Amino acid sequence: MDNHQHGNHSDPAQARIKKKGIRQHKVNDQAQNIDSNIPDSSEDKSSESTQGSALVFSPENQNYMSSANEPAINREEVAALIVGDFDANSKTDIIIETQHGQLQRIHELHSSYLALQYPLLFPYLEDGYRPDILHSSAPDGDYSNNLLLRGTMVESERLSYIRNNKKKLRVDKFCSLQQSLDDGSTKGLNKGKRVILPSTFVGSPRYMDQLYFDGMAICSHVGFPNLFITLTCNPNWPEIHRLLNPLNLKATDRPDIISKVFKLKYEQMLMDLTKNQMLGKVIAYMYTIEFQKRGLPHVHLFLFLHPDNKYPSSDEIDQIISAEIPSQQDDPELHSLVKNHMVHGPCGTSNPGSPCMKEGKCSRFYPKMFQPHTVLDADGFPVYRRRNNGHTIEKNGVIIDNSYIYLPDRYICPCESTWRIFGFPIHGRKPVVERLHFHLLGQHSVLYEDHDDIDDVLSKPSISDSKFISWMNTNQNFVEGRNLTYAEFVSKFVYNQNKRCWHLRKKGYTIGRLLRVPPITSELFYLRMMLTVCKGPTSFEDLRTIHNIQYPTYKEACFAMGFLQDDKEFIEAIKEAKDWGSAHYIRKLFVLLLLTATMNKPEQVWDQTWHWMADDIIYNYKKSSASLALQLDDRTLQNLVLLEIEQLLQANQRSLRDYPSMPYPEDANCPTYLDNSLILAELDYNNQELRSEFEHIFSHMTDEQTSIYNQIVEVVNKDERGMFFLYGYGGTGKTYIWKTLASSLRADNKIIIMVASSSIASLLLPGGRTAHSKFKIPVPVFEDSTCNIHQGTQLVELLNQTSLIIRDEAPMAHKFCFEALDHSLRDIIKHNSKDNKIFGGKVMVFGGDFWQILPVIPRGSRSDIVNATINSSYLWDHCQILRLTKNMCLQNNMQATDQEEIAAFAQWIIDIGDGIIGHENDGYATIEIPQELLITEYNDPIHSIISSTFPDLCHHHNDREYFQTRAILASTNETIQQVNDYMLTMIPSEQMEYLSSDSVDKSETIESCHFRSLTTEFLNSLTTSGLPNHCLKLKIGTPIMLLRNLDQTQGLCNGTRLIVTRLAKHVIAADIISGTNIRDLVYIPRMSMSPSQSP
Hints:
With 1095 residues, the protein is an alpha+beta fold. The chain is built from 36 helices and 35 strands. The strands form 12 sheets. A 6-stranded parallel β-sheet has the order 26-25-27-28-24-29. A 4-stranded mixed β-sheet has the order 1-3-4-2. It is globular and about 100 Å long. 34% of the residues lie in helices and 14% in strands.
């Protein structure tokens, strides 16, 4: 619903409806009320007629999410299309014509909107829907359309409430607020960070994620589901006909009746299956309600059966499930039901135009092969019996046999709108899953508003208590809870939110689910592990007590429980590396182990290896003091090594204070530790060298680049706000402008923050970082996310003093990443005025090329990807576009032949990006690759492409420059594995094999016994994105690539290319051959890696 106009036009769709008998005086009164509530006006009148216009659905030729499929619309049904190119600040555009003949806009929640849109339903211009409206009887008439519009308005108001109220709330830890009060700070606005409302909005990504984890919690307690059942609404049900036929109405006229009848039907089915145990005793279930594109609701139901009632064998499955056509003579009623409701197609050669046909084949893989017996495949899924028994059905003139029988397994229809208005549940499960929060001592979250005084917040009753603390207090008074873990506790007790206390449960059963936290949270992560086994603790100290021994940290307690392994292999890795390189590289290796959270007890590794890290420190001190007889005791030497390690950690925005078990240097007497280290790092440049660099770079800039540079610098120097997007394809000099801006402004002692979407791109920027690490952007990020930036931190002070923020590779990042930064900067940037400026008034310059990689949306459609880009964000309305068109590669002095060849290739790339190469482009196009770029003569394709890319490899395998300019790209990991295996055979050196130690996360095996049955062989066979294979084969001279970010200051990022120089059992030595740290030596140890845990 985009634009609704009412006025005196010739177009019937926009004609003013007049009717005698209407009380004109009441209409006039209401019209005057409308005029007084319209804040803005529009000068443009629509001159185009809507006659003959139509709504056209253009499906994409790809596998996309079902929510974006072309809807099979009933022509008599009205639907609401929620267009995907709007944002949180967009409004429905509703234009009316006033009595004075002017066009004006009103809000979609205006009380007179429905009366103007549906004059037949509101002949006296009565008030329609408005916020806080009371319940009333429904009008007659165009009932379906009216319900649809009311439903979308209700949802719009809920979203508006969430957006408006989230700006008032802040959150901080209790101990942090207490410390601020002790320091004399009382303003809540200067503490904590903005907070978004909980994941309660139905259909939001966070809401779906929480449901997923709730489902996994049920699986952990009762096992995996046994039956998957789907019930679809049938508009020909007799109950529906009995209500509609007397009124001469169709099912599409009364979506409320359809919704209510379907709800009764599925509730009866649920009762038959659960309470009446039609298919056996049910111990748990989950369901979700969905709505088809044709407007009918359906339910997907998972049933978890009692172990005595499962269907483990093929014969037992055949007793309840059939994929065959029943005999028409023996059971005509069942035959009719199967014929009308459970036959796929026809499709294939009989009906090539069927919607399921893709590239001449059925996308649902029908017809299926005949199957004489039901069998269970290797993954435990059944292949149902489909015997060739001669039973057939005629459908649309096509004879169909058992091979076509199937099991029935943001477009808003009237039924969905009605369902939401009635408040019917969308999801359901039994038993109930309760999400359990936990925290360290004094670190529970406190929610308050901007204007609250900290003293008032902390003086509220029970502010120092939490649900988690109340659980431990309850264990002191109730014996029933002392044999239960935190997750088990909710099965016997119920929490009273108002009184903040637990009491014994009188009825029902609930499953507790501990919220997930990543390992990087350190003690909080280990606390969660202890909560899975510790029963009946009465204090935080009890959670760290094992066999009457109280351990100082939760990590130590996890060691005592046997959850964590020792660190002997990391001690061996440092021991191997110390024979190869200096102590400086050994310290870097130790810091790398800290940053990757690989060591379980870093203090023990430190105790046994620190003396190897101190070798060069003794030499340097003797050299600086000119005294060869200088002696340093161990305590002083350890402190100097710790200072070096602290400096390396500070460069990665970490500190030894982040590792409680590690010692901290006693003498940190340098400005880096006394002041804001982030600001000092951004100002730690040689101004004279920067000015010389700027003069050299500026003298070689093109006219385009000079104009863009001057435009940005002018805004920065005037301290004005601005948002720019520098658009240009590869080779036009975007990075060149970034370097020019950085050298110029930093020479004037201005702070410039330079970030990129990927680690590799950030290495090309002077002082560059990844945007996620610099601004603490959450992962995953949602529409209303905020960065994890708290008031009062060094990062906030840095951002307040920043003059310019440059963000490269913007098109490949999700728009929510930019919006999260906007939300945070509006909050933390301090202004004298109260203007809610975009990005807090900071100058933002984005750059990139929309022809290159766009945001990756898992299982997303083409429209989903486009909608995720930055130019689909509300921020784009404030953005000024700057363009680069000249290819810098063609500006260099080169031979005319080479210049023509490069120019032709560059133009061919541009034509591909513009979509003008190939035939008609509807999302896919056939592109003819120039003959000179192809390998046309080959017998073995792998051998041919390696020989072409790496000629004479056996004589150059130790040549770093040889590998720097060569690489092979492939679209699948399988092809890459073939290339790697073949190249290893061509490198003449000894091969070493490294085997991974694969295991299921301890916290998973503790919570669920079902994961313990996974064998080591099965885990070793898994190939997961982002992880190397179980067996890693390497040779000296082999080019390798990192799969994760290790240490950006060393140039070790996801995608960094290296060449192996040494191989040992526990560590690899390699030289970097890409980025800005080329030829640097690095040591890479074994480390823990895990795939993404998001669903």
